Amino acid sequence: MPDWTISYTGSNRSQSGIALAVSPETANEKGSWTELIASTSFDAVCFQLFLHQNFSADGLIDIGIGGSGSEVALIENVLISGRSGHAQDIVVPIRIPAGTRISSRIQTIAADTGAPDEADVIVTLFGGGFTYPSGLSGCITYGANTADSGGAGYDPGGSAGEYGPWLELTSNTTRHIKSIAIAFGCQNELTQGFYEFITDIGIGASSSETAVLEGLCWAKDANTDAASPGLIGPFPVDIPIGTRISTRSMASGTSSTVRLFDIVLYCFY
């Protein structure tokens, strides 16, 4: 798999862009695009996305490329969920050619009557390295719910330490998926306890699922009322076109609010 070779290729170059993504005053609608980098200075093989939340609610963030007024989402609906001050990051293994303009935009669940919700967005490009020497082409998001600025809701059930049912995230992949990252959210519930979770990602028909990512550990943090970490991955996978993808989880407790969460998959091809 040349996309995941550990041999070093390319030069270690980096370039960062920082912007404040601002939501509109209408709940669950994307705001305008805000420029992060006017023109990338080299061919990037991946980038790190860092998000800092300046509001207490659920939100979805897009990273786009293209000229002003012609932006196209490169990765869309990156979930951020928790109280103001919550931060998270993810490495996005998508190549971006030199000379590309990069922007961001956000939507949140809250309808603002005063100042709109905001998030600090930082993109750092990398021009080579041992992890992503060739870069991937794009990303498909499964599970995002733009109607409430969250993700696909999941309930592990009322038995602590036991898996809940499989939840379908897509019935039919449209690309050959080579890598997956996962986001977790708290369903806009800002009173959380400390619970630990184990999550699997599976493929296959209903009642015949097989885990391709198994035993992914994360937790809810009672101090930030957020998932910790809120984003995990990306992990290498090999999922053909036309595959059904599902997820299941177990929780360490049974509270009818704390055990509930949102999940979103970012599938790179």
Description:
- With 269 residues, the protein is an all-beta fold.
- It folds into two domains: 15-128, Sandwich (Jelly Rolls); 139-268, Jelly Rolls (Sandwich).
- The protein is 0% helix and 51% strand.
- The chain has strands at residues 10-22, 34-37, 46-53, 57-65, 72-82, 87-92, 102-108, 118-128, 139-142, 152-154, 167-170, 177-185, 195-203, 210-221, 226-228, 231-239, 245-251, 261-268.
- The strands form four sheets. Strands 9, 10, 12, 16 and 18 form a five-stranded antiparallel beta sheet that branches.
- It is globular, with a radius of gyration of 18 Å.
- The protein starts with 9 loop residues before the first strand and ends with a strand.
Keywords:
five-stranded antiparallel β-sheet, Jelly Rolls, 18 strands, 0% helix, disordered N terminus, 269 residues, 2 domains
Low-confidence stretches: 1-10
What's the number of extended β-strand segments?
Answer: 18
Q: What is the mean pLDDT?
A: 92
Helix content: under 10%
Terminal CA distance reads 13 Å
Structural class: mainly beta
Strand content: over 45%
Tally of distinct domains: 2
Global outline? globular
User: What is the count of helical runs?
Assistant: 0
Biggest sheet overview:
5 strands, antiparallel
Series of secondary-structure elements, N-terminal to C-terminal: EEEEEEEEEEEEEEEEEE
In CATH terms, what is the architecture of the largest domain?
Answer: Sandwich
Radius of gyration: 18 Å
CATH topology of the largest domain: Jelly Rolls
| The CATH class of the largest domain | Mainly Beta
